C-alpha cells in the first residue's frame, strides 16, 4: 500500500470515528432533554390526577346531596297530598 492509500484509509477512519462520536453525543443530548420533559409531564399528570380525584369526590357528594333532597321533596309532596285529602 502506498502512502496515498494509507492516507485515504486514515481519513475514512477519522470520519467514521467522528460520525460515531457525534451519534453518541446526539443520543445523550436527546436523553437529557427527554428526561427533563418527562419530569415536567409527570408532574403535570400528577397535578391533573389530583384535580380529577377532587372533582370525583365533589360529584359523589353532590350525588348524595341530590338523593337526600329528592327524598325530602318526595316526603314533602307526600305530606302535602295527605293534608289535602
UniProtKB/TrEMBL annotation:
It comes from the Bacteria. InterPro entries: I-spanin (IPR004929). GO terms for biological process: viral release from host cell by cytolysis. Pfam families: Phage_lysis. This is Prophage endopeptidase.
Amino acid at each position: 500500500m502506498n502512502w496515498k492509500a494509507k492516507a485515504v484509509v486514515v481519513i475514512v477512519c477519522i470520519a467514521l470515528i467522528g460520525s460515531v462520536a457525534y451519534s453518541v453525543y446526539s443520543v445523550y443530548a436527546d436523553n437529557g432533554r427527554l428526561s427533563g420533559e418527562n419530569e415536567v409531564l409527570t408532574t403535570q399528570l400528577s397535578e391533573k390526577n389530583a384535580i380529577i380525584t377532587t372533582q370525583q369526590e365533589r360529584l359523589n357528594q353532590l350525588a348524595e346531596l341530590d338523593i337526600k333532597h329528592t327524598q325530602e321533596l318526595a316526603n314533602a309532596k307526600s305530606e302535602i297530598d295527605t293534608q289535602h285529602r
